[in-house]
Amino acid sequence: MIRIEDFQLTDLLMKMYDNSAEAIFFFDRHRKVISMNTAAELILDPEVLDRMAAGDSEAICLSCKGYTSEQELRTCLACYIKNPQQDLSSFQVYLDTKGKGVIPYTGSYQTIDEENGIRVFMLRDLTKQYKTQESLNQKMMMKNIIKAQEDERKRISRELHDSVAQEMLSSLVELRVLKYMNIDTEVLKKVQQTEGSLMRLLDDIRHLSVELRPATLDDLGLEAAFRTHFKWIEKNYGLVVHFTSELQSKRYGGEIETVVYRICQEAVFNALKYANTDEITVRLFEKGDYLKLHVVDEGQGFDLNANHPKGTGLGLYGMRERAALVEGDIIILSDLGKGTIVRLEIPLTKG
After folding, report:
1. Most CB within 10 Å of its CB: which of 52, 177, 292, 343?
2. 0.70 exceeded by the pTM?
């Protein structure tokens, strides 16, 4: 171990005191502040500093908004400063700081000189940690909400396919039997009309089941799900989707596949509704350590800076939210008369 002379140690401690980002206060046995470093001075209002300089033992209370106890988030009961017999090595306290409002700090209040009753009060700003934690909590909450939505979509989709659609199919079979029975022309015509209505309703239910959660996405992956979806788009809306995939049927985690599918689905439907185009190009590929999706149309485009773009704007917001769940980035490029490009890239390795 390196040996440090006393004078060197004193010099280092003084440098730490002067240059530390932590606020440091020294109190005497009467709770009066006898010294504070620059970081401490910067967080206190001039009135508090003046009263401290005048020897007011209650001056710090003008800034302190309470500390966190086992019973309350902020309390002044059993105040840490008024408990000389108690060493508090780590606790949370709130201070009304100069120009920043009430800030959460982690604090420590300990005796360093028993004979002279000297105690040190140290504060470290927790704002950055709180923001990081809040961001993480929001992200986890969003993940859980979207997972719950997808799970419920999957449940309803299977219920429609395995129960409702099957029951309707059975009804259709029974209805068709009537056509071979001895019934008059009017009844036969009505049966045929009802059969046609049931067939259309059955197709609608099957489509709704697929839109809620395509079984091919879970069973066969992105390529199969996209090909099925784009065939349905072309059949029902006449929109031609030129789809190319360079994945060779490769599979990814369920969360990544869901994000890519939903973002592409939203981008294609946005083009269908607003782009006024007959063709869209979709490319799915890997490059480096990223899974990439490009959705391109040469339609009428839109102004990204417009205050009131067509639609609610929630679709674009939802795409960005979903991309963030898998650490992905989404770039949307568009201009009036120049079409729209949606680029998604998702890292496949996390450092």
Report:
1. 52
2. no
